[in-house]
Specification:
Elements: E1 2-7, H1 12-24, E2 28-31, H2 43-56, E3 61-66, H3 70-76, E4 84-86, H4 90-100, E5 104-108, H5 114-126, H6 133-149
Helix pairs in contact: 1-5, 2-3, 4-5
């Protein structure tokens, strides 16, 4: 799978672990940074890089990391076609894909440790959208909301 991964300075350490784990597992990783954690930066910039990769098709999914995960989740969900979820547990990570067709995983580096993050990432990347009628119906409603408020 092609996966874009991005983080601000607060997510740098966890981002590095996620990138290495994904590459070791054989995934194509688009590492969007940050590569200089001591430099001042802003999470919306990295959220946009990851969303652009998904929206343009250079990544099937993305993972974005900031301190709490909340900032990148708010920012990523501003982009049409992006369905991002802040997940700090295994269940939400796979259920978000299976039921909601989540295509961006948001993580909080100051909230979870690296082993929990690894479990969450694994649940996210191995999950697939169920395609069940009730989930397709709900996804269609979300897409109608996007069309109402965004030029896609």
């Amino acid at each position: 799978m092609n996966i874009a991964v991005a983080a601000d300075h607060a997510g740098y350490g966890l981002n590095h672990i996620v990138v290495n784990d994904l590459r070791t597992a054989g995934h194509e990783v688009l590492d969007l940074g940050t590569h200089t954690p001591e430099q001042e930066d802003d999470y919306p910039d990295f959220a946009q890089l990851a969303c652009d990769a998904v929206r343009q098709g250079s990544a099937q999914r993305a993972i974005v990391v900031c301190g709490s995960g909340v900032g990148v989740c708010v920012a990523t969900n501003k982009f049409p076609g992006i369905r991002a979820g802040l997940c700090h547990d295994h269940y939400s990570a796979h259920q978000g894909v299976e039921h909601d067709d989540m295509n961006v995983l948001c993580l909080g580096a100051r909230i979870i440790g690296q082993e929990v993050a690894r479990e969450i990432v694994q649940a996210y990347i191995t999950a697939t959208f169920s395609g069940e009628a009730r989930h397709q119906r709900r996804l269609a409603k979300i897409q109608r909301i996007e069309k109402q408020f965004f030029q896609t």
